[in-house]
UniProtKB/TrEMBL annotation:
It is an enzyme of class 5 (isomerase). It comes from Hydrogenophaga aromaticivorans. The active site is at H98, E169. Keywords: Cytoplasm, Gluconeogenesis, Glycolysis, Isomerase. It is found in: Cytoplasm. Belongs to the triosephosphate isomerase family. Its EC number is 5.3.1.1. GO terms for cellular component: cytosol. NCBIfam families: tim. GO terms for molecular function: triose-phosphate isomerase activity. It catalyses: D-glyceraldehyde 3-phosphate = dihydroxyacetone phosphate. This is Triosephosphate isomerase. GO terms for biological process: gluconeogenesis; glyceraldehyde-3-phosphate biosynthetic process; glycerol catabolic process; glycolytic process.
Amino acid sequence: ETKMKKLIAGNWKMNGSLAANEALVKAMLEGLQGAEPAADMALCAPAPYLAQLQSLLQGSPIAWGAQDVSAHEQGAYTGEVSVAMLKEFGCRYAIVGHSERRQYHGETDEVVAAKAQRALAAGVTPIVCVGETLAQREAGETEAVVKRQLAAAIHTVGHCITEIVVAYEPVWAIGTGKTATPEMAQAVHAVLRAQLAAATTHPKRVHILYGGSMNAANAASLLAQPDIDGGLIGGASLKAADFLQIVASAR
Ligand code: PEP
C-alpha cells in the first residue's frame, strides 16, 4: 500500500468571529501558496461559521468540518445540527466524541458511535475522539479506556471502520500545555492500530491523529512516530503561522 498523507485538522472550539476567521483563513491560504502542502488539512469551526468557511475555502487545499453532529436524522431535537445540514455547507469532516462533549454534555460511547455512524452514512468523515483522563492514566487504565471507546465505534459502523478518522486525545493534555511524549502517544496509537487490525484487513488506511497541546515546536517529533498519522490541533489552529508550521512538520 502506498503511504497516505498525514491529516492535520484544526479544532477552533468555541472561538472566532466573522472578522477573525476571515483574517486567519486568508493568512493560512497565503502561507500555503506555491508549494504542495505536506499534509491534508481541515478546519473544524462552530456551526454558524460553516457557510463562511465554505466560501473562503472552496477550491483551496483546506477542507472544513463541524465539531459535532446529531445522532438523529432530523426532527424535534432543539439545538442539534444534522449531517444533511453539514453536507449542504460542504463539510467533509465532523468531530465526534470530543472529550469536552463527553465531559460537559454527557456523551456516552454509544452516542458517539451513533453520531459516527450517522456521519458516515451521509458521506461525512467522523473524527472519533478517544482518550483517558489523568486519573485513568494514573490508575493504569489508559489502554482499557481507549479500547472501550474505539470498540463502540467499531461495533456500530462495522466494515465502514476504514472510513473513519480516529483521534487519540489524552484528556490531561488538551489545552493544558502538557503534551504526551512521542513514545507515550505512539504506545497508545499502536494499541488502537492493533484493535483496528482485528476489525479490518486495512488498518493502515485509518488515520490515527494525536491531539493534546500539539504545537509548532513538538509536532515534528510526534508526527515522526510510525502510528501517528496526523494531528488534531486546538489552540495552535487559531494562529496561522503555528498551524502551517505543524502542517510543514508532517513530512
Ligand atoms: C483539542 O481540543 O482537540 C485539542 C487538541 O486542543 P489543544 O491543541 O488546545 O490541546
